[in-house]
């Protein structure tokens, strides 16, 4: 067995024993050199990042690989798309598993990038030069959502057809350009063959190319900005070599993610509803779960108002680095003890206020019939939008003055309030909406 | 350097680089226009959007609502005998409405809008009545032009065609 021992020994990676050698190994490797050669010890604590950026990157790789395989078995025609998915589910070896991996990775990616955003916000990862990467990250979040949006038309089932119909229907309300944009995107007046082909090209070519460019920039900026945001150190900080300290953690997190994903994909196949029927929407017709928060908003206000409200939140997020310049708080979760308190207050208030507003608007308050002479654009659009924005301003003022929080701390509270509202609206949309979108106990 | 010191004539080098920039811009705009026209939607003859022959007036009794799935519309014969071709696309976000004869109304399952027989909103969020298509009545034969849905803010008698 001497040959076997020799073989095993020859396969063993020969890592240099000294620090300099290991640092050079990182610098000279195409992939590893995304990392610095050494990292500060506090950056390696799991509770600092929860590995969310890394998990998202891993999911992206999985999505690309499984997506390429799926392309070989998919037909982007309305006569055959659904059939090809059924064939994949029933006849192609590992077809169901690969589709499940792709589907659930896409879903999980929405969660991990959102949590990544939350983590970066709470640790102040947007101060100073990190500002540009924060805004870039927001653009990447929109890109991920657009990826999911284009992806779920492709199976050509009922969810696909009606979710895209409703989603593109939103565009019609954008003044001046909206209808032209919707027609251009769909390649016609309604969702059909042209729309399927357009969405397929976007999903497998245009968006991946964009994602490659944007992700490269995102990673490069992280290095340029000096890695993840850490509290300003009071003394010298211990630095550890990337091999084995960081790479070891990354491998561990990657293996855990892969195991969880594979286990889930084996147990739960990707859903497939009935063949798309343009004459009969399912009842209730719901979008994918991560858009149900927005769909819930649509039940309460004019589409333009709902879009403006979500747009204001996105713009507000992009403005955070210009609003909060409390750079001394970098790396401290929630800025300070008071900031964490403001965050908790904001979140709890949201858990109280948002469901109350949903219930009040559903059962008692009917602005359009209270003010029958006014246009519904005002009673159902301008008024709810103004009330929501005023409510948010009030929350901010409440945290700022009675609680005497600094702007940066009050912003933590406002962020938590909006995050809580999104969670509540999503839960209501997913679980508490029955046939005809009536509010009901599940 | 004050503005009076700026040269009043354009050097040959500046002229050429300006020209090069302008050409580059023109090239970019042309590529954009080519891409746009290449990708612009185009309708195919014979698809939804043509004239649909619905049949004879006598086969639709007053008070009836008949669905034409290929034409994407409901032919409504009002109680007074008037005709309306109601586009099935909900004016809220584009779901297909369904006719419920027992409740005498159109409902949209996506966001819960209701419309009466003439397509007028009974329950929001739909912002305006269902769109209609133009009807031509000749020798008792009904034909519906599905090329252009007609928007309306409220119901009025001139939207109805009488035999």
UniProtKB/TrEMBL annotation, chain A:
One term under GO cellular component: membrane
Keywords: Membrane, Transmembrane, Transmembrane helix
Segments forming domain Cytochrome b/b6 N-terminal region profile: 7-231
Keyword Transmembrane: yes
One GO process term, biological-process aspect: respiratory electron transport chain
Keyword Transmembrane applies: yes
Membrane-spanning ranges: 50-72, 108-128, 134-154, 199-220, 246-268, 304-323, 344-365, 377-399, 411-432
Cited InterPro entries: Cyt_b/b6_N, Cytb/b6-like_sf, Di-haem_cyt_TM
GO molecular function, one term: oxidoreductase activity
Origin: domain of life: Bacteria
Protein name as it appears in the record: Cytochrome bc complex cytochrome b subunit
